[in-house]
Amino acid sequence: MNPERILQVESVTLAFGGTTVLDGVEFDVRAGEIRAIIGPNGAGKTSMLNCISGFYRPQQGRILFEGRHELTGAGRVAQLGIARTFQNIGLYTHLSALENLMAARHIHMRQNMLASALYWGRARAEEVRHRAVVEELIDFLEIAHIRKTVVGALPYGLRKRVELGRALALEPKLLLLDEPMAGMNTEEKEDMARFILDIHARRGATIALVEHDMTLVMDIADRIVVLDFGTKIADGTPEEVRRDPEVIRAYLGEAD
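^ that's the sequence the OP posted. Answer follows.
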């Protein structure tokens, strides 16, 4: 029996003006796996994540989440259980790390501002529950020492870690990571790889990631889909992808 497909990308085509960015791309993501999307610069990787997360609306094809939710141009992906980090960090730079993570809990909050005023006890109990989730994430990501630090004052690597925490605070069924290690030094990359593996192993998260570091992708991904100039040229296990002549040609300009 095949593992459940949590995400299905079916014949997705995306164009801007006369430029086709994605051309009939198809792949799936299975529940519980780490699925990598790789390719040379300009291959369409981030555009694919933008389609999945509802930022772009493809001209053709469809994207299904859990077999029933159409994501093509949807604006409610967080409510469905999809969270995302960005290649260019998207945090509230004037807020602390703790406040950024708490802000991400808003979709799980049941008590509105009026309820907070009228039923202080109920709203207070809910805030305590959300704070417990956030504090657990702070410990998990080893950022307790910067929990009250304004994010804009943090080094790049720690800001990327806070952004990962904010995505996890949404308690996603599917976590989309857009180049989570871009701009990091070797030590920061090793830390981030460890956190991604821990999220997968200890939290049972399904992860789809775009990443340029081929060595890392080959080490942590269960399956890899390869894009080149907006088309899919390979799809399989790391070993299958590593040996694929089209992948070798796309990255090295030659085949074995």
